[in-house]
Specification:
The protein is an alpha+beta fold. It has helices spanning 4-12, 42-56, 96-105, 120-124, 126-132, 142-156, 217-227, 233-241, 284-289, 292-315, 334-343, 362-372; strands at residues 15-21, 25-33, 60-61, 66-68, 74-79, 82-92, 113-118, 136-139, 161-165, 174-177, 187-192, 196-203, 206-213, 251-252, 274-276, 322-326, 352-356. The chain has twelve helices and 17 strands.
Length: 376
Amino acid sequence: MATDNQKTATQARTTFFGVDMGNSLAKVVYFDVHDSREAQDPETAASSRTIHDYIVSKTEYDHLGAIREEHLTLRDVSVNDRKGTMRFIRFPVIEVDQLIALVQTMKVPTHGVTVVATGMGAYIHQAAVKGTTETDYHTADEFGTMISGLAYLLTHSPRECYFLADPYNKELTRKVYVENEEIAYPFIVCTIGSATSIQIVESPTKFSIVGGSTIGGATFLALACMLTPATTFDEVIELAKKGDNKGTIDKLLGDRGCEYYLDRFAVKIPANFVAIQFGHMLDAERRKSAKAEDIARALIGLITSVVGTALLGTLKGTDIKQVLFAGSFLHNNDIAIQHLTTGLNHAPSPVKGYFLQHEGFCGAIGSLVDLLSSKV
């Protein structure tokens, strides 16, 4: 519990960042406060204005490989008793050291700046941030901030969630946004970040970690960098959109050597159903002719298959009817969203899958909310 003095000190700060530093990607929430009630000293006021002007002046920061997601901006939202605008930025974690150097080189003022960070990178980079800037730096638990951030979105971001309709029909499939009231506790949150975590959430403050996998977005990106010319997540996704894994990389039920399985299932399964992921890559000639686009698409299928299996195992023995998928692996990743949606059809009882507009920012939002609610 924060003391009155601690609360007053927190309220007096004017520039706030919530940061989720994963293994490969940093997700940043900049809270642009509109109603700063406290009198600011000139240095703090100047620092706040300089940072604000720089962030809102552009959406791409090429020297850092950073992108501000303008369409995700939440305007006129409140955190505790403060009102402002939340702006969302993502950039590769590998650029954190460069960011610190840039702040020093450009002499960006950090007086009055508060950062609360979560994720593994929050601890790795803690000493560097504290040692080279005036930033008031805090760390927060990544699982708790994930859930508090999600709870905040379900309260403050209209129609935050959507589901995929007609996922089997490429011509008709579409995202359908729903009112937040449609999401009811308890539900499962499956977060595909660097790795994968699965949590049962009973309320905005009560949750339990019930499963997960070491496989996730970091695995996907690392394998893609090894097997294709791509060097960034966005590049891999663009490759995958042009690819076709079926019959080229993955072996299908209708392919030679697998066709006898078609008569062994209790229900009829189509011949183009994947039987062995990367099964054709045992053939040296096929490996030589394999296209980067097809490999990228096959990798998405590999990751979602592992995650889906872990999730279905968790669903057994529960009567939960809703799953919320989160994590930056899903950013602009319609192929994964389609795979995860159809995969829930194999659940032991009917379950509906939902996805988030702010899929990768729950931890960053939660860390910010917890700080301003004096929980950090």
